[in-house]
Amino acid sequence: MNSGLDVVILAAGKGSRMCSQQPKALHSLAGEPLLEHVLRATAAVRPRRTVIVVGHRAHAVRSAFAGRSLTFVSQDPPLGTAHAVQQTREQLSSPFFLVVPGDVPLVPLEALTRLVELHCDSGSLVTLLTSEMEEPGQYGRVLRNREGKVTQVVEAADAAPKQLAVKEVNAGVYCLSNRSELWDALEELSPSNAKGEYYLTDLVSVAARRGECSAVVWPHNEQLIGINDRRDLAQAERTLRYRTLEQLMLSGVTVVDPDNTYVSPETSVGQDTVLLPGTHLQGTCRVGKGCRVGPGAHLADSQLEDGAIVSWSVLEGAWVGPEARVGPYAHLRPGAHIGARARVGNFVEVKAASLGEGAKAGHLAYIGDASVEAGANIGAGAITCNYDGMHKHHTHIGEGAFIGSNVSLVAPVTVGEHSTVGAGSVIVRDVPPRALAVARAPQVVKPDWKERGEVA
Questions:
Q1: Of 37, 280, 363, 396, which one is the catalytic site residue?
Q2: CATH number of 5-224
């Protein structure tokens, strides 16, 4: 789309019905703030500038999106949507601009594109996005005259019974012309309620009387849901989840139970991968072809190469190589790098460490700040003692090494290639290649020691 427009996002509301100390714009949907979803949708129209109007706990919203190419303006006190738009006048330079609420996270690019195109073609002062709902609830009703032209938007609280029967509702998304007539009209609006608030819905009436109001009726009302309370948030979560899963299934991914599979819109999944119930893919996960994920797998910002298998496990910022197996009940923390055909089994934790091709850590092990070369085997209960209370230290385990059960490797330490460390050993010095290391206290047996009252 031509970038001859700006975008204004209204995110100043307190969101009282959320019953939360957190700004509504920062409430999570599919693992990301509501405002992030709106920013993604509006960024697709390639605006010259994006202006975010903040109010309640503005510092929290600014901090959450610091470092981005965004312009923030404050609305204090919050006096309604029309008042919020007025605060952006000095920041806007394009001939027209979109106004999008920060709590309409599912609005699609296609709807915004159609809205802008109609606005440009019609030369209107105001173009609004509407939809029809069988149960409009608290949405403002869009009223039209006999010719079918929009005449006004009436809030549900102010609507007469006949008006409440209208099915067409206002989505709160507008395209406005950046002309002096617009700003003059905003200045002339009267408060819409006892709180002294000024609403953009009143601008519709002004534009309609001038013959400069048009509307796009969007057929998919579920995509225009506004988040007012946590029930709306759950409904949006379902809608977004099914939209994401449907796209995956159409691309060749098997989703065994869509009702119990949760995938972020930012995640990519390759063909012939199977997602089993209880799978959560959050953030920017990348899953290759022919993988098997789940049941009960939770991945965040992690990558699985082709043919990898993960079940009943938690992965955070991890990379899993081709045909590697993880789980059940493994925990891969940030920096975990599992090589091709490696095996990480039950109750194994890996943090800031790499396992080479074909390496195995079958059960009950901790591998932190370590490099494990190809073909090495980590026995049950083995741990890398990487932290001395002040600093982290590195452990290196060579190719083909065998680490016995209940071994403690006190870092910094190196176990050479094809070496063996006997079960129960505490290793504090380097082990050369192809050696056997056994470090145990001498076994002492004292028969009948309790009867003699000896101290162990």
A1: 363
A2: 3.90.550.10
